[in-house]
Amino acid sequence: MPHDLSRSKDLLERAARLMPGGVNSPVRAFKGVGGTPPFIKSAQGAWLTDEDGHRYVDYCGTWGPAILGHAHPQVVAAICAAAGRGTSFGAPTAAEVDMAEAVRRYYPSIEMMRMVSSGTEACMSALRVARGVTGRDGIVKFEGCYHGHADSLLVKAGSGLATFGVPTSPGVPADLAQHTHTLAYNDVAGLEALFEKRGGELACVILEPVCGNMGCIPPSAAFLEALQRVTKAHGALLIFDEVMTGFRVARGGAQQLFGVDPDLTCLGKVVGGGLPVGVYGGKAEYMRQVSPDGPIYQAGTLSGNPLATAAGLETLRLLAEPGVFEGAAETTATIVEGLRRLAAEAGVAAQVQHVGTMFTVFFSDAPVTDFATAAACDHARFGRFHGALLEQGVYFPPSGYEACFVSTAHGPYEVERTLDAAKVALGA
Ligand SMILES: *Cc1c(COP(=O)(O)O)cnc(C)c1O
To answer: In the prediction, which pLDDT does 167 show?
Structure first.
C-alpha cells in the first residue's frame, strides 16, 4: 500500500497560505529531504500518529525534549495538576526554587541561574552576560553550531540554515555580525590563532560541547583542552550551550561527561519536559551582575511559569531514578551497532556517530568532525534513506544535518522495527 498522506497534503496547502512554508519552524517543512511532512495528530511513548492514521517510531523526540517519550503519564499529571492551580502568576513560586535546586544538583557549575522560555533566549542572554561582565563585544562561535536565532548567533549557524544553504541570515545587521568570529569545529590551531590576534576583544567562546545541529559530532580532547586554556588565558568566558546535550549525552550534560567546568551554561529542551523552557547560568560572580542584583538586564513575563516548571521538575525527577538514563543510552548503542552492521552488509559508506542518547547516520566514508565534512556527506542519499524509513513507519529528523534522539520509551520492539526498516532504506 502506498504511503497516503492526503490529509497532511491538504493541511500543508492550507498552512502554506498563512505561514512561511506552512510551518512554525523551518526544518519541519521537509525541504531538506523532500516529500510532504506528515501532520502529527498525537504522540505516545516512542510513537507518533499522523493525520492520515500512520504510526511512526519517533527519533525526532520534538528535537530532543522527549527523553521520557511523549505524554509520559506522570509528566502529564504534573502539568494538569499545575494548570489547575493557575497557569502563570508573574510572581515567584516555590516550584522555581525546587527547579533551580534540581538543575544545580545535576550541573554543579551552574551556581546561579535564570529561567527563560526557550533555548534561543538562554543563549542570547548568556551572551549578554559575557559581554556585560567583560566589557568586550567580540564572540567566537563554530561553523555549524546553532545557538538559537538571536542576531549575533545566526552567523554560519548549521541546522536549518545549513539545510537551506544559507550560511548567515539576511536581516542580521553587518554591524553586529562583524563581532561574531566563526571557526571550524575541532580546529585547535584556528582557535589559538584567533585568540593570539584578538584575545583582548573577545568576550566569550560559545559552543555545542557535542555538536548536534550539523549532526552528532563529538569534540576532540585537544579541542576541549584548548577551549579551556585560551579562554582562561585571555579573560574570555567559556559558554557551553547544552540546550541539546543537557540531560542527553549524560544526565549532567557534556560538562559531566568530559569533566569541564564552563563559566556559563545554557539549557533547554529536556529541562522543560516538552514545554517551553530555557535556563542560563553559571558562576555566581557573573550571574550576580544580572538585574536586579546587577546592571545586566534580562526579563520575561512567562519565565519560570508553573506549567513548564512542573513538566521540567517531574522530568528531572524521573530521569534521576537509577538506570533510567542508562537504559536509553544502551538502546541508542544497540541501534547504532545495528545500523553500522546493516550499512556494512549493504556495502554503503556510512558513519553512524553517537554520544549518549543522540546519534546521526552520515553517508560518508570518513568520520565527520566539522561543518565541511558534514556538508560533504551524500545528502541526496540521506533524503532517500529518510523517505524510505518514513514509508515504513520510522520518523527520523528531516535533514542530514540533524541528530536523532532516543527516549526511555524506545524498547526492543521499536529497535527491531527500526532496524528492519533501515535494512530496506539503506538500499534506497
Ligand atoms: C535547539 C537549540 C537551541 C535553541 O533552542 P530553542 O528552544 O529552539 O530556541 C539553542 N542551542 C542549541 C544547541 C539547540 O540545540
So the answer is: 61
Complete edge-to-edge strand list for the sheet that includes strand 351-355: 351-355, 358-362, 404-405
The set of cell numbers assigned to 306 is 508553573
Tell me which residues are annotated as active site.
Answer: 146, 241, 269
Indicate which residue's Cα is closest to atom 10 of ligand 1: 147
146 lines ligand 1 (CB under 6 A): yes
Residue with cell 508573574: 90
C-alpha to C-alpha distances, 380 to 60, 124, 367, 386, nearest whole angstrom: 20, 34, 18, 10
pLDDT above 60: residue 230: yes
Does the structure show a pLDDT above 60 at 195? yes
Nearest atom of ligand 1 to the alpha carbon of 148 = 4
**Residue of the CA atom closest to atom 11 of ligand 1:** 147
Q: How far apart are CA 64 and CA 216, in angstroms?
A: 13
Range list of H helices, 151-299: 159-163, 174-177, 188-198, 221-234, 253-258, 284-287
Spatial neighbors of 14 by CB under 8 A, at least 6 apart, are 22
Span from the CA of 412 to the centroid of ligand 1 (angstroms): 30
Beta strands 180-183 and 202-207 are unpaired
Residue 380's identity, in one-letter code, is: A
Residue nearest to atom 6 of ligand 1 (CA): 119
CATH of the domain at 47: 3.90.1150.10
Kindly state whether residues 350 and 312 are assigned to the same domain. Answer: no
| Binding site membership of 148 for ligand 1 (Cβ less than 6 Å) | yes
Query: What's the chain's average pLDDT?
Result: 95
Which of residues 264, 286, 319 is at a domain's end?
319
Q: Is the CB of 213 under 6 A from ligand 1?
A: yes
Atom of ligand 1 nearest to the CA of 119: 5
* pLDDT tens-digit series, residues 18-67: 999 999 999 999 998 999 999 999 999 999 999 999 999 999 999 999 99
CB-ligand 1 contact for 117 (6 Å cutoff): no
Q: Are residues 226 and 252 in the same domain?
A: yes
